[in-house]
Write a structure and sequence with these properties.
about 450 residues, alpha+beta, Triger factor/SurA peptide-binding fold, Chitinase A, domain 3, 4-stranded antiparallel sheet, about 50% helix, PPIase_PpiC_CS, PPIase_dom_sf, Peptidylprolyl isomerase
Length: about 450
């Protein structure tokens, strides 16, 4: 994989809390003022020296003491310039991403960060910012990433490689430079969420209606939000969510909020996050601000047991060859991210299904440690990235011992590398064709990087 595609993947699929936020310009407070400067201008887009250094620092950390290429900073800057050129062209070509897509990716990313660090409270303490502020900081950068992704797909998305091209790619590589892979596994899962029972729903609704009555009787909405709301990001601020544009919040919430006049309060509203009381504060053009009180209906043992029972029946069918694990995952898993991939858990670094054993989630590691290839676990308790109670069954599809890369065992990886090389050529051609259509200014300190040349 070339430097450019690898670095683009780092930006889109950053794997740890600190490195991910660093990639997006959200560093942990240090008490020091960092000197920053614009080093490249591309129409209305700019590249800061901090943008370059954030990616370089992450590459340095991932190298784990191994020497880095002397021209790595230039390679990183070339990758960033390509991304900024795509953003500039997207603006002139009116390429946009839906607000709902940005919101979903933001929620997914934030849920992952929370899972990695342990809780929303710990994440807020780590960065000394409320969850809402972290989301506000992340939102514009994630939108840029998705636009870049869409542009890259339009440029190189239809590129494919043939088996002959894969073999040629592999045979061109010097044999002494072929990668050595540690033990890797392919792991699948089928997830069933614990469905909330009607009584738990009604209890949440009843409690919110009681709170609503207290507000109507004169108590302060913000004070009760601090006391009762189960949205920690906004509860500390009296339920205040700030300004959002249309389609940036879930449809049920937005529809209820926009029916209100400033100061008015909604009846109980149900969304994918739970149950809300909403108060409209202000409208400004296409934007509006609200506060809310959120309650989540708790799941009980009976709800989790029902999910386990469904998975046990599904496991029996798979073991009896009535269906395959991949088909069952696609049709019935409540985790759509893995379900669409036949249940296989993706490698967050490269998007493949191969997970290095030394970097796998500990919960999965200790589960598969004694499993044989092809075995499927009984239903196991599971907590989703966004904190929902669930059960899952786990399948060990493959377990590859340490080895040097070869076409037999690593065809998919080699094919992906060959595809990336071909996509790089398509991106280079696009870059050379479009670099003259925008204004580009480069700081003289980086003249030796030859940023206006194609990346080989």
């Amino acid at each position: 994989m070339s430097a450019r595609v690898a670095l683009l993947a780092v930006v889109l699929l950053a794997g740890t809390v600190s490195s991910s936020f660093a990639q997006l310009g959200i560093g942990r407070p240090t008490g020091r003022t960092m000197v920053d400067a614009i080093i490249v201008k591309i129409d209305n887009q700019i590249v800061l020296s901090s943008d370059l250094e954030a990616v370089y620092a992450q590459q340095l950390a991932q190298a784990e003491g191994k020497p880095l290429p002397p021209d790595l900073r230039c390679k990183i800057l070339q990758s960033i310039v390509l991304n900024k050129l795509m953003l500039a062209k997207a603006e002139t070509d009116s390429v946009v991403v839906e607000d709902s897509q940005v919101r979903n990716e933001l929620d997914r990313r934030m849920a992952y960060f929370v899972q990695q660090i342990g809780s929303e409270k710990k994440l807020e303490e780590y960065y000394n910012k409320p969850i809402k502020q972290l989301k506000d900081d992340l939102r514009p950068q994630i939108k840029e990433q998705l636009v870049q992704q869409k542009m890259q797909e339009s440029i190189a998305g239809k590129v494919t490689v043939t088996p002959r091209e894969v073999r040629q790619y592999f045979n061109r590589a010097p044999k002494d430079s072929l990668p050595y892979y540690s033990t890797e596994v392919e792991v699948g899962q089928i997830v069933k969420l614990a469905q909330i029972n009607p009584k738990a729903k009604q209890d949440a609704i009843t409690k919110l209606n009681d709170i609503r009555g207290r507000i109507q009787a004169g108590e302060d909405f913000a004070t009760l939000a601090k006391q009762f709301s189960e949205d920690p990001g906004s509860a500390v601020e009296g339920g205040y969510l700030g300004f959002f544009k249309r389609k940036e919040l879930v449809p049920q919430y937005e529809a209820a909020a926009l029916k209100l006049e400033p100061g008015q309060m909604s009846p109980v509203v149900e969304s994918q996050f739970g149950f809300h009381l909403i108060q409209l504060i202000e409208r400004k053009g296409d934007s509006y601000s609200t506060r809310h009180i959120l309650l989540k209906a708790a799941t009980g043992n009976s709800d989790v047991n029902e999910a386990a029972l469904q998975l046990a029946k599904l496991r029996t069918r798979i073991l009896a060859d009535s269906t395959t694990f991949a088909k069952a995952a696609k049709d019935q898993s409540d985790d759509k991210n893995t379900g669409s991939n036949g249940g296989l858990i993706p490698n967050r670094q490269d998007g493949s299904s191969y997970l290095p054993l030394d970097k796998i989630d500990p919960a999965i590691f200790f589960t598969i440690d004694t499993m044989k290839v092809g075995h499927i676990t009984p239903p196991l308790p599971y907590r989703t990235d966004d904190g929902k109670d669930a059960m899952r069954i786990i399948w060990l599809k493959s377990n590859t011992p340490p080895h040097q890369a070869n076409l037999k065992d690593d065809y998919q990886k080699i094919a992906q590398a060959a595809l990336n090389e071909k996509k790089n050529k398509a991106l280079d051609e696009w870059f050379l064709k479009n670099r003259g259509s925008v204004y580009i200014e480069v700081d003289p300190r980086y003249a030796d990087c030859k940023l206006l040349d194609a990346v080989n």
